[in-house]
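re: that chain from earlier
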Amino acid sequence: MPFANIQRLANATVQSTNYFIDANVWIYALQGDTFLNPIQLAYSNFFYDIIESDLDPQPKVLMPTMLFSEILNTWLTKIAFPEYKRVNSLPEDNSFRYKQHYRPTQDYKDNYEKICDDVLSMSSSITFVNDSNIVTNPPMYITPAVDPFDFNDYLYYQICREFQRSTPITILTNDGDFQINDIPLITAHRDLLSLR
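^ sequence. v structure.
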């Protein structure tokens, strides 16, 4: 079985290990339960089971810089900006622009601060990681063949592979790009589960 590493989210329990949690799952967890469908809620619940775990040793969540950037930018562009437009009855066309009009607003600043505060409030459960171990000469991430990944996911995969050399890690993802068989993976994504 080539993908025996893939575990169904519904059957998973939190372990004393390190987790890489993709940006999709972070966004579900930061949104709050009201806005989530049942699968997103299952991811959010597992996320907080990790963060609030009293296992010894406590599980840790890896946070590379690129992941924080992706979480922050996704929140601001996909959650905060559309909500601001809706609340302020702004047109759905492109006449009110993100960079030009939204970024100078207090709402943008408040949402930026909210994500920073939310992540920092979990810092006892987070390991902020440096990606220098994949920056060789030339860097491992500069390759023309990253299928089925997009660039960010490929970079995360490389970070996890290097991290796994010294410390166990499990990936929690709802992203079909993570078609890998060399790192334990927890998911409810149909495409990934079909690989088992």
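The mean pLDDT is 92.
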